[in-house]
């Protein structure tokens, strides 16, 4: 998701200056910008940000990072803020929590840094961001302004990409690209790695992301796997993974919204698990507005399965435990699509948040079950 490039202006040193606004999340450009430097206090910065005024940083880069941290400490913790609120359902609590997180992100996005062609961050003691920026956003042809928060996200993503993430189900590392969700939860990968393939030799992986599920299927012996995703950055990531693992003769990634043409013996989908509105690129791997992708997968599945073929829906029941969706709704969508459940494999979470008693939704997360639903056309 990228925003249409637009020019923003501000007053500095007695003249009007301009640059392109950059936001990979499609965030609107700030309406008011003031120039700030190392003399700005955290309290004043927080007041400006909460009032809707962005600060274009002209001081030391490391001081800007410290200021951002100090601003973050002043933002009310949404987990604590809800404790004094009126009694609510778990779903209402979760909605309030997300509102708080969105508010926090908006406040922190008000600290801006200049990036010149190169790309180079035009600040004292700024790091070399060339590789991180190019991999995340592409070339810079003219000066741009970007939130420091987003720049730090690109730098962190490059570290992930360089270091890689070991996937036990592949016995190999993957290298997630910026904006492509890293599969840090191995339990759902193991479900796909262990489920009976019933001799399938063709498979579709819908919404492939990094391509990890398609790679697992190809590694297990499926001869032809087509992986689809609507995001070009995901296709580039998946293609790179297939080439690195020498699976490009078996697995192919194509830019496509949902299903490719034709049918397969096995069709796999791991849609976003929670109904909700995405706010960032990574949110698209977590939040599915009105369960749109989940419902589209179920509705389209019968037309893309070979006779006797199976669809595998990999999804957590966290949405049900948070009161965002019911099991009856899910089963109703399966039946309405002309599908029947022929099997299910369950697993419990092993990630750190499930054991974090300080998480405001610990009860739901600790009881969460992730399932691989096996579906066939009736």
From TrEMBL:
Keyword Cell membrane on entry: no
Domain Methyltransferase small: 200-315
Pfam families linked to this entry: MTS
Domain of life, per lineage: Bacteria
Recorded GO MF terms: N-methyltransferase activity; nucleic acid binding; S-adenosylmethionine-dependent methyltransferase activity
InterPro entries: DNA_methylase_N6_adenine_CS (IPR002052), SAM-dependent_MTases_sf (IPR029063), Small_mtfrase_dom (IPR007848)
Keywords: Methyltransferase, Transferase
Signal peptide: none
GO biological process: methylation
Protein's UniProt name: Methylase of polypeptide subunit release factors
Organism: Paeniglutamicibacter cryotolerans
